[in-house]
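Human: Cast an eye over this sequence-structure pair and say how the chain folds.
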Amino acid sequence: MYVVETLATESLGNRSYLVAGPERAVAVDPPRDVDRVLEAAARRGVRIAKVVETHVHNDYVSGGLELARITGAEYVVPAGARVAFARTPVEDGDVLDVDEGLTLRAVATPGHTPHHTAYVLHDGGTPVAAFTGGSLLLGTVGRPDLVEPRLTEDLARAQHASAHRLAELPDAVQVLPTHGFGSFCASTQNGGDDGGATIGAERGRNLALTKDVDAFVAELLASLDDVPAYYAHMGPVNGAGPAPIDLTPPRTADAAELADRLAAGEWVVDLRSRTAFAAGHLAGALNFDGGLATYLAWLIPWGKPVTLLAETAEEIATAQRELARVGIDRPAAAATGPWQSWLRQGDAPRSFPRADFAALARALEEGAAPVVLDVRRDIERGEGWVRGSTHIPLHQLPQRLAEVPEGTVWVHCAGGMRAAMAASVLDAAGRDVVAVDDSFDAARAAGLVTVPGA
């Protein structure tokens, strides 16, 4: 008898797993905040005997080393992974005991990384689930371009072969990937869903299993988009052995200290909703309402101090945990309470309007000639754009502010979240801005969009 508990980290599009037998358990690709795994094991009354990694992760800091230290579990890492710490290396075909009648069989599945390894769970000798990490995802595969550009095509071909190897498992075997639920580690975002996450279902829908290798590789390489900048730091951190997570509260900053940190060029990040931020905020602050771990980590110069602002200490703690998962470990300081308390006496607050695409259409019709800034990614822009708009993807905006034309900037994305972040960047730089908080479908409905070939 066994149970698989899924530990989802929605903000990163990742999942970790706890496989529990009657007495012992194994953790697969654990997150850095290992208290979640420990709580799951305690709730089920099992001892974590093994911690296994499918690969050295490029998108988050692993909690595997720390979890193994705390629990005394055996730490299992693919033999081909270059790591600087003691671990049990696993080779293709190795079998790991989990509990009585439960085993994991290692299956070499290179592609996402050269050393990638999946694990097939057997219950009484019958394969029942495959922990596929970044190899076989739901409807797609993990991207092959995170290791070294010169290896990308070879890894894409290996990814196709690895998917077909996993497809030899029986139809009913569950497919339990680590990536692919919005993660940028997925090669595409068509992803599938949990309802039919089996080998049988993947045979009929997965890109790697429905196309020949040449067609698959051509389509895969054409679909690859920009890689979040912080990914460059995750592999080295995980290979060296991450430090234990530290979630103790950051020190409290008053209004004078916030002003000093802004004057020093540090990042002061307001965690309130984009609506509240637009209505009034500390001049120079940046706003991340959603997408914190991904987009703040993507935009910020690595190592720059971060100070967090929120209405409550609980919101600070949640943000601190999110950032620690991607290696932004200790906020320099934090402040809570009403946002007006973050201003020194006499400081003028900032604000900017929000609008929809219908308002933008009216402004264009009236001849106001606003600057329209599109901060979507290249792959999104390729499907259509607002006529006359300037395109700078959000993750490039801080370095390309000088390219934004003069005038009031109406900034948009696909749904409003990234536009709000971009608006805060522009506002902090002293620009007049309007945040378009609307679906891009509304731009199409308003007749604003040019499509390729039109």
